[in-house]
Model the fold of this input.
Amino acid sequence: MKNNRINLRLLCALSSIFLFSNCLQAMTVVQQNVEVLKKTNSCEGCNLAGANLQGANLQGANLSGANLNETDLRYANLEGASVVQVYFAGAKLEGANLTSIVKFVVLTDEEIIASGATLNNKTTLPSGKKYSK
Done:
């Protein structure tokens, strides 16, 4: 019985280390992708989930296929960015400029509003209109 408890504790400890290690690796990958985006203005198909891109100038950036779930894009300039098959669920878009992204993807104001992203009256929607509740 005592050996079973020790084995169970060891298994739990190893599992925790493994999970923590995977979380760190995921954060490192996202941070590396942020650096690539800042240098090249492109991060096609990359994982930017949860990244802090608040106030970033991403005008004309290629973000096609990127995961932007839970990403902080408050007051970021995404004017003319390519966002084909981009995931915005839970993204913070208050004050973000989303003008002209509709040229690259069939994305309506309603789809941005329904995506779960947070918006405010300073957010410019794909149509060029300001968001209002």
Q: What stands out?
A: The CA atoms of residues 113 and 119 lie 8 Å apart.
